[in-house]
Write a structure and sequence with these properties.
The complex is a heterodimer of chains A (480) and B (385). With 480 residues, chain A is an all-alpha fold. Helices cover 63% and strands 0% of the residues of chain A. In chain A, helix 3 (37-60) runs antiparallel to helix 4, helix 4 (67-93) crosses helix 9 and helix 9 (226-252) packs across helix 15 (337-350). Chain A is elongated and about 140 Å long. Chain B has helices at residues 10-18, 25-28, 31-42, 47-54, 143-150, 186-198, 220-229, 240-243, 251-254, 269-281, 323-329; strands at residues 63-74, 77-84, 97-104, 107-114, 132-137, 157-164, 176-182, 204-211, 233-239, 262-266, 288-291, 304-308, 313-317, 347-357, 363-365, 369-371, 375-383. In chain B, helix 6 links the parallel strand 7 (176-182) and strand 8. Chains A and B meet through helix 2, helix 3, helix 5 and helix 8 of A and helix 4 and strand 4 of B. Bound molecules: FE2/S2 (inorganic) cluster. FE2/S2 (inorganic) cluster (FES) binds next to loops of chain B. Chain A: Residues 69-334 form the Fatty acid desaturase domain.
Chain lengths: 480, 385
């Protein structure tokens, strides 16, 4: 079972969690107070650049019967779509730029270039996902309803096709998101099943417009290059889908992005909420260009802590969040894009299998752990395994001993335990082997003895027979 | 796309084409067909999402304007002449106000100011183009008004809201008129005077304007000029620096027929309260028109009456109760999600008054979009929900 008690899991006291929350609040305030012209310029330039790239891409595609024009146009359009999706649609939709009071760059009016309507996405994403981040049964983004991403979720035979489902999801990501948001919207609104409900109509209208634009109107505009432009648009959407998928998966599913149970939600304090966001997300390392292309979602941890602060500030927020992680001895999950994706990829494939083929439990698996992971083991720095002894500050180093040390030490202890068990196993095996050897020896002896006896008896039989023969021959002689 | 009989009709096609630009239909006219057609390929954007990058005045999501002239009126006031962008309706009524948004430090600040120009006005100094003007008086601590009076450069692009308000002079104007103004309260009345002047329809008009000193009188020269040119118009100046506040008890002596006149009054809230009383006591409240610029700054505090515009309900809320809770307790269907300020589901427009962000104490005012789950009333306010 995933984390039910974040306080016990994090190895922090309630007071620690509260001060951590206050420190995060003060980061938020300082960013809020310093938002200004520089940030506004950033988003306006991004918008202008994105529009420019898109117009350029569409224009070049008029010549898409030429191979190079096709490649250039497709590349431009892909980049434009990625920026539109990640840095604009996602972040504006989060209200990151609402503070500017600009009706053209506002969460309540921004419509994005994706299949699903922004408004439906906003409810599913901003509300369901960001409020209940990684809470089993509450956050529907955990596997998007198709993938089993934690062994907390019971295995069903359908999960066997998970590797394939993953590929399909990646290729058609915008459709996956659209359908997912649409069903959540209907659930949230409690829409009756009627076909013409408002969410259905909105959904249909948006799809029709998106599909018509990319696969009908634009290709038609380019006349004789219809087929090539169609292919270019398909490709650009596909590229954007793959990238968005990769960014999302790297932010949520690598090892170390923890899962929680609804028990944790009950009476959750704001400090605990922050902590849940922090432990539930994962970053990946990116330079400025990659950060920009990911909509700064390489700073997924910071984004989950402050979903509505401007994305261009996440890099500086990250420095401060890392400092807090050091201070409170908390893990800060990050790695290269490749590594983070491989970890997620591993989970996808592993969890396609039924539980009986998996070794770890939901309390101690790479993709889900819980406070029970620490139960029943004695950590070296402590006299007993009782987690209460962990709380507070180490008298020797003056450092807080928190989750990060606990994880590290637990790893060592568990490894040691595993090593010992292996050793014991090896011993037992050796003993068994010796016993077997011995028994073999005894057996061999016995066989020898038996063989000897047999030989002996044979010899005596032979002798007896010879004697009888001699006797028989003598009798004949005599009768002759 | 097709008519009811199932076939195609020109009108149906046209409507279909226009649909994406429908929200601006009254402004676009025939151009909307083209806009609609282009919108089919620029979806989910509108053509102007591209166009306004080239020219900010082409935005159709909202009206825009460009400041073409800033004229000093007094030491602390100025007239701004603005050329509105595409789609502005010049057929407003004298006395109405417009909303104007100004970008300072990356943030748009929103205020309302009375138009001081007559309808359909073209300024010879602005090349004979149709423009509008407002007059702004710098208020102490009035961060935006000071910026507008002394810091805004010509060429600045501003956001505009269409002219509105019921403080208007009917056409034709009544036979006998009394204007009572003080300070910047003169601005809507000036528009009325200018309109009367332009239409050559200056009836029997008495105007009493209060200001602290003669230097503080906005449009002093113009008032004198109107006074000289129109025998039926009398401009009275009352300098409060010398004579103190104008006492309404002096009305009988100064304007013996004030009860017969239609009166328009604009000025500080205290003055308007007094006038309203006086007129009610005289039993002629229906002859009085007042304009309150905005809730007086002193009214900003903790809590207040929250009015929910669309449902017409109200709730009393203290400074710690979120607007969301206040609305729900009054039985209003409020949109909400996380209830903790992260999801933006609960955002609604503040149509008047002030609210405060409970997390950081930031103040929001008329025209701002606010998150109701983390905002509380800071005085009386109205929400567009
Ligand atoms: S309800 Fe989520 S921001 Fe207000």
């Amino acid at each position: 079972m995933a984390i039910t008690d974040i306080q016990a899991f994090s190895h922090l006291t309630a007071a620690d969690i509260e001060t951590l929350g206050q420190e995060l609040d003060s980061i938020r305030r300082s960013v809020e107070q310093s938002r200004g012209e520089r940030d506004a310029k950033y988003i306006r330039r991004t918008i202008a650049a994105q529009r420019g790239l898109e117009v350029a891409g569409r224009a070049v595609l008029f010549g898409s019967r030429n191979r190079w024009a096709w490649l250039t146009g497709t590349a431009l359009l892909s980049v434009a779509k990625i920026i539109e999706n990640m840095e604009l649609g996602h972040n504006v939709g989060h209200g990151q730029w609402d503070w500017m009071n600009d009706p053209e760059i506002h969460s309540s009016s921004w419509e994005w270039d994706m299949t699903g309507p922004s408004s439906q996405w906003r409810r599913a994403h901003n509300y369901s996902h960001h409020t209940y981040t990684n809470v089993l049964g509450k956050d529907e983004d955990l596997g998007f309803g198709i993938l089993r991403m934690t062994r907390d979720e019971p295995w069903r035979p359908v999960h066997l096709v998970q590797p394939l489902a993953n590929v399909v999801l990646a290729a058609t990501f915008e459709w996956g998101i659209a359908l997912h948001d649409w069903s959540i919207e209907k659930e949230l609104l409690g829409t009756p099943p009627g076909l013409m409900s408002e969410p259905n109509r909105e959904f249909g209208r948006k799809i029709a417009r998106q599909v018509a634009k990319d696969f009908l109107f634009y290709p038609a505009l380019t006349g004789p290059a219809f087929k090539q432009t169609l292919k270019a648009n398909l490709t650009a959407n596909f590229v954007r889908n793959l990238w968005a998928y990769a960014v999302i998966f790297c932010g949520h599913f690598p090892d170390g992005a923890e899962k929680f149970t609804v028990e944790q939600l009950e009476g959750e304090t704001s400090g605990e909420w922050y902590l849940r966001q922090m432990l539930g997300s994962a970053n990946f390392k990116a330079g400025p260009a990659m950060a920009f292309m990911s909509g700064n979602l390489c700073y997924q941890i910071e984004h989950h802590l402050f979903p509505d602060l401007p994305s261009n500030r996440y890099s500086e927020i990250a420095v401060r969040v890392r400092e807090l992680c050091d201070k409170y001895d908390l893990p800060y999950t990050t790695g290269s894009l490749g590594k983070q994706y491989l970890l997620a990829f591993r989970t996808i494939h592993k969890l396609a299998l039924p539980d009986r083929l998996l070794k770890a439990t939901a309390d101690n698996a790479p993709e889900t752990s819980s406070e029970r992971k620490f139960a029943g083991i004695t950590l070296p720095s402590l006299p007993s395994s009782d987690t209460v002894h962990w709380l507070g500050i180490d008298p020797e180093t003056g450092q807080r001993r928190g989750l990060r040390s606990a994880m590290r030490e637990a790893k060592v202890v568990l490894k040691e335990k595993a090593r010992q068990e292996k050793e014991m196993l090896r011993e037992a095996k050796r003993a068994l082997r010796e016993k077997a050897e011995h028994e073999k020896d005894v057996l061999r002896e016995a066989t020898h003895a038996l063989q000897d006896r047999a030989r002996h008896e044979q010899a005596s039989l032979r002798r007896k027979a010879a004697r009888r023969q001699a006797l028989w021959r003598g009798r004949q002689h005599r009768s002759n | 796309m097709s008519s009811k009989r199932g076939g195609f009709s020109v009108r149906g096609v046209r409507e279909w084409l226009e649909a994406p630009a429908a929200s601006v239909a009254e402004r676009g006219g025939k151009l909307n067909v083209l806009r609609g057609a282009v919108a089919r390929v620029t979806t989910p954007l509108l053509p102007d999402d591209y166009l306004h990058l080239a020219n900010p005045l082409w935005s159709a999501r909202e009206l825009r304007g460009r400041i073409v002239d800033v004229r000093k009126e007094t030491a602390d006031s100025a007239t701004l002449v603005i050329k509105p962008g595409w789609g502005f309706d010049f057929k407003y009524q004298p006395g109405q106000y417009i909303g104007i948004g100004v970008l300072i430090d990356g943030r748009w600040h929103w205020r309302s100011y009375s138009l001081t120009c007559p309808p359909n006005w073209s300024d010879p100094e602005a090349g004979g183009k149709r423009v509008i003007s407002i007059a702004v008086k710098a208020m102490p601590e009035g961060f935006l008004s000071s910026h507008l009076v002394s810091g805004v450069p010509v060429g600045t692009v501003v956001r505009l809201a269409a002219p509105q308000g019921g403080f208007v002079l009917p056409y034709p104007p009544p036979e006998k008129v009394l204007f009572l103004t003080a300070g910047s309260g003169i601005t809507p009345v000036l528009a009325m005077l200018r309109a009367m002047d332009r239409r050559e329809m200056v009836t029997d008009v008495q105007h009493l304007h209060s200001a602290r000193t003669a230097e503080d009188v906005m449009f002093g020269a113009e008032l004198r000029d109107l006074h000289d040119r129109h025998p039926s118009f009398t401009s009275h100046l009352h300098l409060t620096g010398e004579h103190g506040k104008f006492a309404l008890s002096d009305l009988d002596e100064k304007f013996p027929d004030w009860r017969e006149r239609h009166t328009w009054a604009c000025g500080p809230a205290a003055m308007l309260d007094e006038i309203e009383h006086h007129w009610r006591d005289a039993g002629i409240a229906d002859r009085l028109h007042v304009e309150r610029f905005e809730i007086a700054r002193t009214a900003v505090g903790e809590g207040g009456t929250v009015t929910f515009g669309k449902s017409g309900r109200t709730a009393e809320a203290d400074g710690a109760t979120s607007l969301l809770e206040a609305g729900e307790s009054a039985g209003v269907q409020m949109p909400f999600g996380c209830r903790m300020g992260i999801c933006q589901t609960c955002v609604v427009t503040l149509s008047s008054g002030y609210v405060r962000d409970l997390r950081n104490g930031d103040e929001h005012r008329e025209g701002d979009k606010v998150q109701t789950c983390i905002s509380a009333a800071a005085g009386d306010c109205t929400l567009d929900v």
